Amino acid sequence: MIFHDVEQNSPQWDALRLGKATTSKFGVIMANYGKAFSDTAKKYAHKIAYEQVTGAKEESAGFSNGYMEEGHVWEPIAKEAYEHETFSEVSNGGFCQSEKYENVGGSPDGRILLDNGGIEIKSVIAWTQRQNIRRNSLDPAYKWQKLGNIWLCGWDYCDFISYGYTCTENNKLFIHRILKEDYKDDIAKIEPRLEQFLELVEDEKKYI
User: Fold this and answer.
1) What are the tens digits of pLDDT across the range 76-135?
2) Per-domain residue ranges for the chain?
3) Topology (CATH level 3) of domain 2-207
4) pTM to 2 decimals?
5) For residues 189 and 187, what is the distance between their CA atoms, to the nearest angstrom?
6) What residues does 110 pair with on adjacent strands?
């Protein structure tokens, strides 16, 4: 893995992500594993192909909403709460680029110093926090993003942090550790599926 120590959401970070399949979208890539890619995956492949051919950001890539903006606001606070709770020190997640696949990368929310692991933060509304606490596990919607970062970065684990910014102090912070050892079979599925997806990206270049 090649680590780029850049600030997330900065122009440098945007430039590094351009034309790359990122772990944040691994859920789209891994959906229907063993079967044909969905229309959503094909649209994502087209976006990546467009960016690789033109060197410009595909128009829909800039989508944002109120919940996403809230996440950016609360993420530093969630990270600080995590460090306090776990007695850990978290460094910049930056942008991590695959050495084997130059057009694959990811932006974990942080790397844990003095240990081989990292974090992913989701700032969530009260209902979502309630669901995560009751489940006592990671939100399944983000499973492949977390496993993707473990695979990409070579980590032993990734801590899923759910931060309920509107909750009481008792329920604001929920942490679930995802161990590489527990997901070996799923992680082994990533690379072959990713190679198929990258072939789809190449095929989509015919339509740019």
Assistant:
1) 999 999 999 999 999 999 999 999 999 999 999 999 999 999 999 999 999 999 999 999
2) 2-207
3) Lambda Exonuclease; Chain A (3.90.320)
4) 0.90
5) 5
6) 119
